[in-house]
Amino acid sequence: MRSFVYPAVFTAGRDGITVRFPDLPEALTDGADEAEALVEAADCLSEALASRIVDGQPIPSPRRAGRGMHVVSPEPRIALKAALYEAMHRRGLGAADLARLLGVAEPQAARLLSPRAMSRLASLEHALDALGYTIGIEVREKRIA
Question: Does the pTM exceed 0.85?
């Protein structure tokens, strides 16, 4: 099972709260208060994952949240695109290979990987299924570790 829920360190300062992700050093944001920092953190995490997909960089597995850390989830579409990106990378597949597997045109398959394209969740689920993956949804109570 692969999770895209990452621990974040919230540091309070005079100007609000700074948020950083130890597993994704490029992901740094802030908020005026904790509620705003959580919203900004989810957006920042989504952007960091999207950037790694676009740049062809590896996506690190999240570490376990330590004491005082918050856990942050990215936007669901980005999490699914990251999962598809990783599954394809593991198998050495490109967009043309995915297109053949799905029986679609290559540009359509490439859009499934593009973080900026608004792919339907059902389409992402179908692509992951074609690669032997299933999607699980988890709902958990918010808490600070």
Answer: yes
